[in-house]
Amino acid sequence: MGKRIAKEVSIAVAEAVKQCRVDVIAAYPITPQTHIVEHLSELVANGELDAEYITVESEHSAISACLGSVATGARTFTSTSAQGLALMHEILFITSALRLPVVMVVANRALSAPISIWNDHADIMAQRDVGWIQTFAENGQEAVDLVYHAFRVAEDRRVMFPAIVNIDGFTLSHMIEPIELPDQEQVDQYLPPFKPRYKLDPRKPISIGPVGIPEIYTEAKKAQDEAFKNAYRVIIKAWDEFEKIFGRRYRPVETYRMEDAEVALLIMGSLAETAMTAVDRMREAGKKVGLVRIRLWRPFPLRDFVRAVKGVKMLAVVDRALSPGATGGPVAVEVRSALYQVPGRPRVVSFIAGLGGRDVTVEDFEEMADKAYFYLKKKPKESYEMIGVKE
Amino acid sequence: MPKGKDTALMSWKEVPFGCYILEPGNSVKFKTGDWRSFRPVLDKEKCIKCGQCYIMCPEPAYEQDEEGYYIVNLTYCKGCGICASVCPKGAITMVIEEV
Amino acid sequence: MLKELAKFKGFSAKNLPKEEPFAPGHRACQGCGEVLALRLALKALGMNVIAVSATGCMEIISSPFPYTSWRVPWIHIAFENAAAVASGVEAALKALKRKGRFPKNRRVDVVAFAGDGGTADIGLQALSGALERGHDFVYICLDNEAYMNTGVQRSGCTPYGAMTTTSPPGEKSIGQMTWKKNVPAIAAAHGIPYVATATPAFFLDLMNKVKKAALVNGPAYVHIYSPCPTGWGSKGEDSIRLARLAVETRIFPLYEVIEGKYYITRKVTKPKPVEEYLKLQRRFRHLTEEHIREIQQRVDAEYERLLRLAECL
After folding, report:
1. What is the pLDDT of residues A107-165, one digit of tens each?
2. Is B11–A219 a contact, with Cβ atoms under 8 angstroms apart?
3. Which value does ipTM take for this structure?
4. Measured between alpha carbons, how far is residue C183 from residues A256, A351, C127, C128 in Å?
5. Nearest to A23 among C65, C96, C129 (CB)
């Protein structure tokens, strides 16, 4: 077993990528992703990591180079944030449709304007429909573990889809936390070498990326969608296997003090610790409040989620992104829709909080839970509500 | 009215992985010859077997026969007339394709 | 001369490779000069290549599912990123060879194809990045001087005076108001080992240049003039004639830039007037004598400039 050592999360993530024995990295610097790619460059420069590092001239080219690399049969990694992820947008759809299992860590950051380097989830929420596997890490250990998992799942021949591991920019990426990096042998045991079904090789020529005429496009998308939904089983199995080797257990949805909860806060990412403190305080005050955290965002773990919120009266969804003019934050809209067909479903209230680096404090969570209680009696006026905004 | 799906090439279950095309150069199954309204006709008396027609053919539709003549394959020839225009001996004439 | 090129004797009409890496049955228009350029380039490269295409005419006509004209491994991702995708392919091959997962001594040439829009306009950044980083690959621009696939809109490579659907002549316009962007010069400014211009009319010259581009270590750029009967309003049978005239009028000079030094590969001592070239194309039909004079002057000046570049270095 590896040792628990205090490390900056970005550095640990880069070390994990190294342990995954990547062949090619193509990345463009953007705050707050920089420490990850800087450390990877260092590892390559030192010879500690035998890989080609392509210092591309943009994120668009970063992801494009990644596609070329994976298609040629190389294990490939990239990382970005915010505007960089937005610039990749076009190619993200193509990555999944062409079944090219790139792994990317996104250090989540707000989208401009006003330009902000600080954390929220606007960047990744704009990539909801790109067809990548998407997970959210709560802490440094989980960030690292999700990287091993991402490669293992993405490159599985039953899956062959790209994967994004989300880590909150600064509030997670730049934290120094005790993190256990496993031994290389354990990682090798968990992650077999990349052996794609097809690759660009003159010895067996194939054509990748043809024109999808109307007589095939629908069938091609159906085939992609079915394969993507089926990835769920492999994702779970890969976490089971992870537990066997590394001893840490991961599930698509986590719950905290949900046993008899009337009101549940729902979050994704690194706010969990603050939210747990808030739940503890409210529990002490006799309020039946619990916490649900979605780890696997795509494919959406519908059953796990429904099970997690069973019996809850009001679900307070804390979105870290704004969907202007919508009927709620992106996560709220998703879960409201997920619950619609469920008998005795909880009601859903949508809060938008923690935009562009605004702290979401224990008190803010308490406010949201109290509001959720209030809305049990009186319907909210608006379909979503911003929290922590000065009037 | 037939249903939209009646136009589909295949079931979604048969779509190759990633919609890749696994058979190299299988466009040879697509016959572009029926685009043609003019057909090149070679006068072997004039032909010097220089191969300009073959090398300048965008398809490529020309193949060399056992005697060394370059013969157009009408399965693919779209009748553009480049061969006739580049032939240094005027050995190729474009004639109207009979329907 | 670069040592990688020392052993290359060049193709001749007698020893042309038999292989056709690009198969018939593609959907290019009748008399397409671009697909001919593509075919010849691939013929020069042979079967040991990995090809990357930008979105555009050649990608569309070669790959309507379930058919492909590519007999070599091929990938198309998007419009603006052929050079970036090729960078990834090249880097992957390098890593896999080093790690023993691809035969070390097996030569594979990585080639990217894009049109003039995919090169001079939307793909210029990716191209510049890839050239600057020094990937060992060949980038081939198949220049038909407008966005033909979308219906003949102007690009940065559309020549002055040409009519396109977004540069229509009118009372206040003569058509394209700008002079053709000099992409070979931009490529050469990156200090890459090999840059060349070519046209299918001089097919041996084209094939030799593409082969040299593949032989040099590092990035190489070949800009191939590609007549488009559909977009230019010319006769399909005239594509080669136009490609020849473009050289003979000095509109599209043939040259190489090897390690920064310019070599004119086909000197045109007695140029034909540009009018001979222009009048065969509907896209120039509206030009007045004055416009044609203006174009002639510009062509003369550009050729002079090229001569100076070839002489003084």
Report:
1. 999 999 999 999 999 999 999 999 999 999 999 999 999 999 999 999 999 999 999 99
2. yes
3. 0.97
4. 61, 52, 10, 10
5. C96
